[in-house]
Amino acid sequence: MNLTSIPALQDNYIWVLNDDAGRCLIVDPGEAAPVLAAIAQNGWQPEAILLTHHHNDHTGGVPELLARYPDLTVYGPEETREKGAKIIVAEGDHVSVLGHNFHVIATPGHTLGHICFFSAPYLFCGDTMFSGGCGRLFEGTPEQMYQSFEKLNALPEETLICCAHEYTLSNLKFAAHILPEDEAISQYYREVKELRAKKQITLPTLLKTERKINLFLRTQDHVLINKINAETSLQQPEHVFGWLRAKKDNF
């Protein structure tokens, strides 16, 4: 399979997986025009759309893509039914597309019905996990997002984190602010700054990398806990997670 990221809107990525025959699936098409251009350029034959949640920057292109390709199967959580989802999927379901069996993982937090699709090595995680960060809690709680992160952290270390926004630089800036002495974070921050200075993409990222540089995956790390205890006495990982998210919101 070939993985392609299509820039869209301000900082979104629409992900496309295609096989050698040109059949493809499209993940979270926030707008149709760049997808249609890529289809024409590559000679792809789209077969399915995967939706992670209902926000328009992930679903806005669905109507136009369906108008062009009415036989497309659109999979998504209940909250995407009115956004064009034809087959509603939930935790534990499996979606078979292009010979890949995608496991559906419920990841509430950013929205209450948010889901991720996993078929090794690909994880399409929408706005749940970002490189170096996590999604804003528009509908869910810190405890829900922490549990969602625990599910994703249980996946194999070689999992490719295919998230939907180019937020890596700002996330690493925050991480370096919280743990300025952390060499893994500092080194990755330098690498990301160089990539972005050249307008290059920082995604996908590996889960094994995220375990080192993503503070939201390190909420049981004693170094992190001791560091933030200068401001708070939190010990439970879900409370540390919530504290980090609140600090990031105001960073």
Explain what the structure shows:
- The protein is α/β, with parallel strands linked by helices and 251 residues long.
- It has nine helices and 14 strands.
- The protein has helices at residues 33-42, 56-59, 62-68, 142-153, 168-178, 183-197, 207-213, 222-228, 237-249; strands spanning 2-8, 12-18, 23-27, 45-50, 73-76, 87-88, 94-97, 100-106, 115-119, 122-126, 129-130, 133-134, 160-163, 205-206.
- It has a six-stranded mixed β-sheet, with helices on one face.
The average pLDDT score comes to 96
The percent range for helix content is 25-40%
Largest β-sheet summary? 6 strands, mixed
Strand content: 15-25%
Q: What is the count of helical runs?
A: 9
Give the overall shape, derived from the CA principal axes.
globular
Side by side, the strands of the main sheet go 1-2-3-4-5-6
Query: What oligomerization state is this entry in?
Result: single chain
Radius of gyration: 18 Å
Contiguous low-pLDDT stretches (5 residues minimum) are none
Give the topology string: H per helix, E per strand.
EEEHEHHEEEEEEEEHEHHEHHH
* Structural class label: alpha/beta
- Determine the N-to-C terminus distance: 39 Å
DSSP summary, beta strand count? 14
